[in-house]
Amino acid sequence: MDRFTFQAFLSVSLITMALTPFLISLSPRISERIIQADIHPRIKNGRRYRKPEVNLEDHLIIIGMGITGRRLAETSEDHGIPYIGIDVNPETVKRARDEGLNVYYGDGTHVGVLRHFNVPEAAVMVVAIADYRSTVHAIHEARALNERMKIIARIRGFENTENLYTAGADVVVSEKREATERISGEIFSCYSGVCELEE
To answer: DSSP code of 100?
Structure first.
């Protein structure tokens, strides 16, 4: 960059660094004024979650619309099981809704979102998100809202399942553990004389 651009960039950086502490100290007052101001609710409150079109009870809630979540939603559609899918990725939600699936945008680890999608009246919840800590947190929050609901957790690897059961999960399914046990069973069955290897 040329000398003038460099000087302008440096000046803006120094001014920003000088103003930051003052802006941080004033942030509570600024936020209070924004809350009291007469502005559009969406600007004031942030993103609003879309309300389900039907009030569901004894329904299935699927948190995470990856491969597992989508298959569960499709199976629920085929069998007439009332369900709601939740995902934090807007593109994933849009694709699923375009395909006719009952999926909504939301972060299933937050208690407010869980209430919004009627977790207290749900029959079953499946947590099928990739992050282990978020899975534990989502289960903990959901269990606090609904003690009778069955909670099924899907994990990818060999993470500690005890934390999930302590948080309130009823069933924990590990993709890698289940796959390893299945493969091991097939191997051991051969050595028990069950299978015949082709030459």
So the answer is: T
Structure tokens at 91: 């593109």
* pTM score, whole prediction: 0.68
- Determine how many CB atoms are found less than 10 A away from the CB of residue 15: 10
| 35-to-27, 28, 30, 31, 47 alpha-carbon distances in Å | 12, 11, 9, 6, 15
Can you say whether the dihedral through the CA atoms of 105, 111, 114, 116 is positive or negative? Answer: negative
Pairing verdict, β 124-127 and 150-155 = parallel
List C-alpha distances in Å: 116 to 95, 175, 182: 22, 30, 39
Q: Which of 18-32, 97-111, 118-132 comes out lowest in average pLDDT?
A: 18-32
Return the bridge partners of 153, or none.
Answer: 127, 172
- d(C-alpha 54, C-alpha 110), whole Å: 21
Give 124's contacts (C-beta < 8 A, 6+ positions apart).
60, 61, 149, 150, 151, 152
Question: Whole-number mean pLDDT of the chain?
Answer: 84
CB 136 within 8 A of CB 107: no
Q: Looking at the chain, how many residues does it have? A: 199
The predicted-structure confidence for 71-111, as pLDDT tens digits, reads as follows: 999 999 999 899 999 999 999 999 999 999 999 999 999 99
Distance, in Å, from the CA atom of 21 to the CA atom of 23, rounded to the nearest integer, reads 6
Amino acid in position 80: G
Among residues 108, 125, 152, which one has the least CA distance to residue 61? Answer: 125
